[in-house]
Amino acid sequence: MTTTVEAEPRTETVELEIRDLHATVEGKQILKGIDLTVRQGETHALMGPNGSGKSTLANVLMGRPGYVVTGGEVRFKGEEILGLTPDQRAARGLFLAMQYPVEVPGVSVVNFLRTAYKAVKGEDISALGFRKHMKEKMELLGVEDEMVRRYVNQGFSGGEKKKNEILQLAVLEPAIAILDETDSGLDIDSLKAVATGVEKLIGPSLGVLVITHYQRILNYIHPDFVHVMMGGRIVKEGGPELATELEDKGYEGIRQEVGLSAEEAGDDAASPGGSKA
What we know:
- The structure is a single chain.
- By secondary structure, this protein is an alpha/beta fold.
- Helices cover 36% and strands 27% of the residues.
- It has a single domain, classed as P-loop containing nucleotide triphosphate hydrolases (Rossmann fold, 3-Layer(aba) Sandwich), CATH 3.40.50.300.
- The strands form three sheets. The protein has a six-stranded mixed beta sheet, sandwiched between helices. A four-stranded antiparallel beta sheet has the order 2-1-4-5.
- β9 (176-180), α7 and β10 form a beta-alpha-beta unit.
- The longest helix is centred in the last third of the chain and has 18 residues, at 241-258.
- It is globular, with a radius of gyration of 19 Å.
């Protein structure tokens, strides 16, 4: 007698695919042909000097106004998303932790998170049901009740703002998260707390793209892949050892290795309004 064993249903891995992406800011070409794929369960670090275009890439991926795509494509779950609004991209499971989180006076963190959850998930949830879900994430990340009762980012320290971003990531449970210089402006203790929180969330259902200027956050978030960006392009890729190489050589050493001039390598990217990206 032959026994047939039914195969377990396969869950398709979500991918964020960036192909030959070009973009301008205020008429200036910043992204000059980016190719990158991030899958669920993978952690990627995108590193580069100031002005190399890292934050421009993050903002283009999330659809922030002011950035004009002039070539290439971005596919998420197999769908071209460049024509979608930021909220539509979020509803499909894409998340951006901002470098400079904004204040939302008069709106508590808990109410903000519940509204965002309902919008992203497309489902209603009772106040009690959401509180239970949020509380599980708060306990995982070590977030206290007092913080979620406050207005969003109002009067928050730099570390509290970034911790609030990671709480949003935990509550919304996206498939792919982009962390835009989450380590920016943090002291050692805050950096460790925030990065350790991210590391706790990383798993088979979450892919992460960590955008950073410094290697220090990678002491706590351990990437599978490292990409070096200069002058609007990815110029070198490798495993975790590449971050260590960067620490030893510096960006200047990598720049010379790949044959770029100082002008070509960076200091030529900006966000709308003129700040470096």
